[in-house]
Amino acid sequence: MTGGRVNNTRDPCCRDTTGHPSCTLLLLRHFLFLHVHWKIPCPDMASSKNLSRFWEWGRKIICVGRNYAEHAKELKNAVPTEPVLFLKSPSAYVREGAPILMPYYTNNLHHEVELGVVIGKGGKDIAQASAMDHVEGYALCLDMTARDMQDQCKQKGLPWTLAKAFDTSCPVSDLISKDTIKDPHNIRIWLKVNDILRQEGSTSSMIFSIPYLISYISRVITLEEGDLILTGTPKGVAAVQEDDEMVAGIDDIISMKFQIKKQS
Questions:
Q1: pLDDT by residue (tens digit) across 157-166?
Q2: Residue 19: CB partners within 8 Å, gap ≥ 6?
Q3: Which residues form the Fumarylacetoacetase-like C-terminal domain (predicted)?
Q4: Domain count, the chain
């Protein structure tokens, strides 16, 4: 039998690959963790995380609603005085080459193109003045929204989980370095559906800046490496149908393509 202490950055465990009964593992665990003095520290697995593939291990997708005044107005929402926050699950991530799946319970799936901010250094109660030091880079993102479900949730005073957090609701591009985007508050984001331009706007129109958002969010939720913040969408959101093809981009820096398919 072979066993060892494994540090997965959460709870310690022991692992056996030779098929021994669980009682043997329990005895081994007791011996390893209570009676053995470990002279060699376990490696910090967090140090091996590849930030360029944040979607594979990032724990949180934090979204900001109504961060462009014209978008708030087009949906007949009040322009907020403080950020409107909601969450997506990690299973919302989808990468180019895989389809966006339209949930079975919606007949009104909308696109929302957004600039994403990838956190490279975690923190709590982050000051605005140092907030950009916590940014690893950026990503082109979509916040796919079941608008009919969102409207129902609003009417009933319910969370937006069904509308916003379903699987494949967060298509993302590759990581874009901070050096590539010199000023994230002055870039053009755009989206086409079947070669027709639907959304186009500048991040200069954001109500709340990236440093403000990072500081605000970190007062509520501890930010961690690999977390993604979606910073809001400009006006022009609209419905897509099965087999529609969407192409989104940030200036001429990056673009991505996705097709809509119905959930089977």
A1: 999 999 999 9
A2: none
A3: 60-260
A4: 2
Residues 154, 42, single domain; the answer is no
Instruction: Indicate whether 17 and 85 sit together in one domain.
Output: no
**Mean pLDDT of the region 144-148:** 99
Contact 13, 28 (CB under 8 A): no
Question: What's the pLDDT tens digit per position in 65-91?
Answer: 999 999 999 998 898 999 999 999 999
In the chain, which ranges are continuous DSSP H helix? 22-35, 54-57, 69-74, 147-156, 161-164, 210-220
- The DSSP code for 8 is -
Residues 68 and 167 in one domain: yes
What is the CATH classification number for the domain harbouring 219? Answer: 3.90.850.10
- CB-hemisphere CA count at 13 Å for 121? 8
Whether residues 56 and 18 fall in one domain = no
